[in-house]
Write a structure and sequence with these properties.
Number of helices: 9
Distance between the termini: 11 Å
Number of strands: 2
Radius of gyration: 18 Å
Order of helices and strands: HEEHHHHHHHH
């Protein structure tokens, strides 16, 4: 059952990565939140042909994909509990703390784009959605949950308390993300998470 849940989580993160790309790539190029929102004219051109359906599908499918990923976090926490009650509990709580807010964050990111396009891509529309984004950005605290989950799993495995070789501790989002960070690949976080679940599915 554990292997199946880990594979489902891997697929969930792959799908979620695709939905992230649906938000990041418009018909006229890649959208960079930190740079493009500072240039209203660039934003207007970038989203000129952006279909609302693409944004809507991204939000809906993304939430379903994160629900799939949730199975992996919960099953890994149950597996960890066999070797350390404390580690298992921390992973269970931090896993929930990641999955629930990150699903909300994904929808909120899509909502920003949806309302910007729906409101006519004006400077006023941009100002409005950016205020909305800043006021709802607290949902991004979900990444703290992911960090705690991954660090706890890494420490548990490298300490030798599990039934896996210590070197399997590299099957973790953190080292995978460090390797991916310098690249230009989109959805790096989802790729790193998918790799963790895929590798652990073969290891356990």
């Amino acid at each position: 059952m554990l292997k199946i849940m880990l594979v489902i989580a891997c697929i969930g993160h792959i799908i979620c990565g695709i939905t992230d790309c649906m938000l990041a790539y418009t018909p006229d190029g890649r959208f960079d939140m930190s740079k493009d929102t500072k240039d209203p004219e660039r934003m207007k051109k970038l989203f000129a042909k952006m279909p609302l359906k693409q944004i809507e599908f991204s939000m809906l499918i993304g939430v379903f994909a994160l629900f799939m990923a949730g199975f992996g976090y919960m099953e890994l926490s149950r597996w960890a509990e066999k070797f350390s009650q404390t580690a298992g509990t921390v992973m269970y709580i931090s896993g929930l703390f990641f999955i629930i807010p990150i699903a909300a964050h994904h929808v909120l990111c899509g909502a920003v784009e949806w309302f910007y396009v729906k409101l006519g891509r004006t400077e006023k529309a941009l100002e409005t959605v950016l205020i909305f984004f800043r006021r709802t950005s607290a949902a991004a605290v979900a990444y703290v949950g992911l960090l705690v989950f991954c660090v706890t799993l890494f420490v548990l495995m490298i300490s030798g308390k599990t039934n896996l070789p210590r070197w399997n501790c590299i099957f973790n989002t953190l080292p995978f993300f460090i390797l991916l960070a310098p690249t230009k690949l989109p959805a790096k976080g989802n790729i790193a998470n998918a790799l963790m679940f895929l590798c652990l599915a073969f290891a356990v």
